[in-house]
Amino acid sequence: MSGNTVWLASYPKSGNTWFRAAYAAWHNRGPVDLEYLSVDGAEGIASSRERFEQALGLVTSELTSSEVQRLRPLADDFADSLHDGPHLTKIHDVLFEPSGGAPIVSVAATRVAIYIVRDPRDVALSFAHHLGMDVSLVVGHMTNTGFSLGNAGASTGDLLQLRQHLGSWSTHVTSWLDNTLFPVLPVRFEDCLRDPVATFVDAFRFAGFDVDAESMAEAVGHSSFERLAESEQAHGFTERPNGSVRFFREGKAGSWRDELDPDLAERICRDHGAAMGRLGYLDAPGPKTL
């Protein structure tokens, strides 16, 4: 391991924000300031346009999307050089483009990755709410290996985020978990709900942070779903999309059983059965660890 960057990787709406909030509560030994989670250099996201432009001194509106994709690892190198110990960086991109080629992140800057995964049937519901989109359309996007966010490309300089290529849910999972470039720890959202203290302690120790159960228990209390939802209602949250009533919707596991159309649930299992099976998400018993 040559770098210090700890990638907090996930398909959107899988629990990334909760992980960052738990880390912020532990790091600051107190309540979570939601705006802290959105500040680059603290818990920034790899696709931040500002992060890229400040690191490389380039104007992204003068580059093509392909050029930006190729240069993003250089921005990772610069960001990593500012730290002398492990630091978290959020990322939603698939690790490799479906056509192959270089990873979207700098391997040299990477220490490890924590890959947060959630039952895709619950992801579909939460992502549809987040995007303000019909859930059937989101289920279709989750099977599309070309699916991206920010498709306007680098030429639209007023967007805060660069293009994020997500790919299909299954492609996203396997790109991160099956890569051999750096260590990856898979963490299920459902296990975070079941035993948050032990799950977070294991994950952050894997990343290189000196975490103990007592301090993490306090952090879990400060970063509970109820606390985060109350903070959002009182102060807002910049990561909440325009038109969305709230970012923190339910924070539960298994909502799909009551809320998702059975035909859509069956389609998700059909489309993503292999990845769901290895993660223990099919109705038949399956492994909970990889």
Task: Name some characteristics of this structure.
globular; two-stranded antiparallel sheet; alpha/beta; 4-stranded parallel beta sheet; single chain; Rossmann fold; 290 residues; disordered C terminus
Task: Set down the secondary structure blueprint.
Layout (H helix, E strand, L loop, with lengths): L4 E6 L5 H13 L20 H8 L8 H17 L5 E5 L18 E8 L2 H12 L3 H7 L6 E2 L14 E2 L3 H9 L6 E5 H6 L1 H12 L5 H10 L2 H11 L20 H4 L2 H17 L12
Parallel strand pairs: 1-2, 1-3, 3-6
Antiparallel strand pairs: 4-5
Describe this structure in words.
- This protein has a single domain, classed as Rossmann fold (3-Layer(aba) Sandwich).
- The chain is 43% helix and 10% strand.
- The chain is built from twelve helices and six strands.
- Strands 2-1-3-6 form a four-stranded parallel β-sheet, sandwiched between helices. A two-stranded antiparallel sheet has the order 4-5.
- It is globular, with a radius of gyration of 18 Å.
- Residues 152-158 and 284-290 have low confidence and may be disordered.
Number of DSSP helices?
12
State Rg. 18 Å
For CATH, the homologous superfamily is named as P-loop containing nucleotide triphosphate hydrolases
DSSP strand tally: 6
In short:
The protein is of the alpha/beta class. It has helices at residues 16-28, 49-56, 65-81, 120-131, 135-141, 169-177, 189-194, 196-207, 213-222, 225-235, 256-259, 262-278; strands at residues 5-10, 87-91, 110-117, 148-149, 164-165, 184-188.
